[in-house]
Specification:
The chain is an all-alpha fold and about 120 residues long. Helix 2 runs antiparallel to helix 3, helix 3 runs antiparallel to helix 4 and helix 3 packs parallel to helix 5. It has a single domain, classed as Hyaluronidase domain-like.
Length: about 120
């Protein structure tokens, strides 16, 4: 039987792979599935996971380039910005969280016209 931690670790690994493939919507979906039990159990990492979900959503808005994409991307990115500081080297799966945060920061740097 998988534990919540196994699910989170696997979800973070899959999220990183999908983010590298620019499959932002799918990355958001994978992590959101792992986030629900964290939220329901008031897990201390729930807001950091939600921040990464919103980071992926932000880039999906830009990828789709629909009306108001920039405004929507900025609005969603606010959650990431608000909670990314929850990362530290002492949390579970710190290496995966660090890679995920660095990925978001790298993507932001690739869009200076937005961020």
């Amino acid at each position: 039987m998988l534990t919540m931690n196994d699910d989170l670790e696997g979800a973070l690994e899959h999220y990183l792979k999908l983010m590298d493939e620019e499959a932002y919507f799918e990355a958001h979906e994978v992590l959101e599935e792992a986030w629900h039990p964290l939220r329901l159990n008031d897990h201390p990492l729930k807001n950091l996971v939600k921040a990464l979900i919103n980071g992926a959503v932000s880039f999906e808005h830009l990828k789709r380039n629909k009306k108001d994409a920039t405004r929507k991307a900025l609005r969603v990115m606010e959650s990431y910005e608000r909670h990314k500081g929850l990362y530290n080297d002492e949390i579970a799966f710190a290496d995966l969280f660090k890679k995920a945060c660095l990925k978001i920061e790298s993507l932001k740097s690739a869009h200076p016209e937005v961020f």
